[in-house]
Amino acid sequence: AGADPIPALEILTSDVARCGHGATAGAIDEEELFYVMSRGMPRLEAEQLLVRGFFNRVVAAIPEPQVRAKVLAALEPRIGRVAELEAAA
Asked: Which stretches of 1-89 are assigned E, i.e. beta strand?
């Protein structure tokens, strides 16, 4: 899985008519998935591991430990669903 978010806008002019932000998302990398599965992990568990790893890198940037814990707690029930959707695709 991958994403390239652009989380902040810095606008230094008063002539701006319109601003926005964006993000892209991709499927789970098949080579990473193959590597994990080659170690004996079933596909769904491997997908969950990779999705969890992606989110952990993002969440690790949150400086406040309590906020980080809440974000992880909110993500955890959804991670299985993300991997299940990926497997069904």
From this structure: 2-3, 25-26
